[in-house]
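In response to the reviewer comment on reproducibility (Comment 2.3), we provide here a single inverse folding case reported in full, input and output, so that an independent group could reproduce the run without further information from us. The structure tokens appear first.
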């Protein structure tokens, strides 16, 4: 990924929903101008959500998602419907594809109700309009199209473009709003077995770009070169990879702000205060408590993986307890969280703010504390207050937890 690319997590997700054989996949292909989805007259051809990040005029950078039919049947069909409904957690725009030759079914009406309850912008595309005797005028929430003869496909894209909010992330900054133009930030990037060869990981790339956009100076070094870097530079802030928190905190003078990439991204995704409060739960763990350690992406795990090896070890040493650890990755975030005493999530750089918010909301509804890697590690190493110094509202949240 280049510094100018728009990553999938930052793109509006347009999710196509519909009954089997409503022509949903055909319409996806007509809108994208690609054979993105498999098309067949056999019901249930789409078995899992199909995603494609692309530039689509006049919409711009988007992610198009084709989902299984919402009326699928049988045990396997129920699993497919569940997969389709899970897409609601990351949809920015919902497009319900319905057969224009039929009236809306109860299943479709229930889905529309779900859109409205979630305040999810949506549009109904009545497909197969080429089979109607007379043309039908569009309404506020609907348009008649034909994937077969491409009727109103461009008009559909224009309608979708109007539903996409122009200010998505536009005013959000990762760190540059904490600095002034000309300020220097030192980014500490350990190079170990887990570091991708030849490139920086996504949060590091995004933070560098944000600093450049803000007119700031970004210096990047390994933790082994931090001391010499600080001797040559006069940074306003040091931003570290979470696993190097202890060493970096020890080497960084008290007059320099210190935080981590995952703490910055908790704020960027809009869930900083919730995850700050969740870190306090580490001090109340007991033997046998279940902790879910969850990552938003999937990757090959190393022998010293931070999520499955380092973090559990640090927690056991810090608490003196023997909790039970469970792990999830990618889209495999559990629906039932009731058995957990604490959830520790990664920085979620590969998840959209909406998907992060859905996971946090699920934890809130089930009254399960939730924090992230950076805050948990800072708490374990006794530097959480210092790591939150750039965010006064977060320090208030810590103090509130201690009083309660």
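Designed residues, in position order:
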């Amino acid at each position: 990924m280049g510094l100018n690319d728009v990553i999938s997590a930052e793109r509006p997700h347009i999710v196509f929903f519909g009954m089997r054989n409503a022509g949903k996949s055909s319409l996806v292909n007509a809108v994208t101008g690609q054979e993105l989805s498999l098309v067949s007259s056999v019901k249930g051809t789409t078995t899992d959500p199909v995603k494609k990040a692309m530039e689509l005029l006049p919409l711009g950078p988007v992610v198009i998602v084709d989902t299984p039919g919402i009326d699928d049947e049988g045990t396997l069909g129920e699993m497919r419907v569940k997969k389709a409904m899970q897409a609601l957690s990351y949809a920015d725009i919902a497009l319900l594809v319905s057969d224009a030759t039929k009236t809306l079914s109860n299943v479709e009406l229930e889905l529309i109700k779900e859109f409205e309850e979630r305040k999810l912008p949506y549009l109904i595309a009545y497909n197969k309009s080429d089979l109607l005797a007379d043309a039908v005028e569009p309404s506020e929430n609907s348009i008649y199209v034909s994937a077969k003869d491409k009727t109103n496909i461009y008009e559909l894209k224009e309608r979708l473009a109007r539903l996409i909010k122009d200010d998505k992330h536009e005013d959000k900054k990762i760190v540059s709003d904490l600095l002034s133009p000309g300020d220097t930030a030192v980014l500490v990037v350990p190079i170990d077995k887990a570091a991708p060869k030849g490139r920086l990981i996504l949060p590091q790339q995004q933070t560098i770009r944000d600093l450049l956009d803000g007119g700031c100076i970004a210096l990047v070094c390994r933790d082994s070169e931090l001391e010499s870097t600080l001797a040559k530079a006069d940074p306003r802030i040091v931003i570290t990879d979470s696993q190097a928190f202890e060493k970096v905190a020890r080497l960084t003078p008290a007059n320099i702000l210190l935080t981590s990439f995952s703490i910055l991204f908790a704020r960027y995704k809009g869930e900083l205060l919730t995850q700050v409060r969740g870190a306090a739960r580490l001090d109340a763990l007991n033997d046998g408590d279940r902790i879910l350690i969850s990552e938003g992406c999937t990757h090959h795990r190393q022998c010293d993986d931070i999520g499955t090896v380092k973090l559990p070890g640090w927690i056991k040493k810090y608490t003196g307890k023997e909790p039970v650890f469970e792990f999830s990755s990618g889209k495999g975030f559990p629906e039932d969280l009731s058995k957990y005493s604490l959830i520790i999530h990664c920085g979620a750089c590969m998840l959209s703010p909406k998907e992060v918010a859905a996971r946090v909301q699920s934890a809130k509804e089930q009254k399960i504390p939730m924090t992230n890697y950076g805050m948990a590690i800072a708490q374990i190493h006794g530097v959480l207050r210092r790591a939150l110094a750039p965010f006064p509202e977060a320090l208030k949240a810590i103090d509130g937890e201690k009083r309660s």
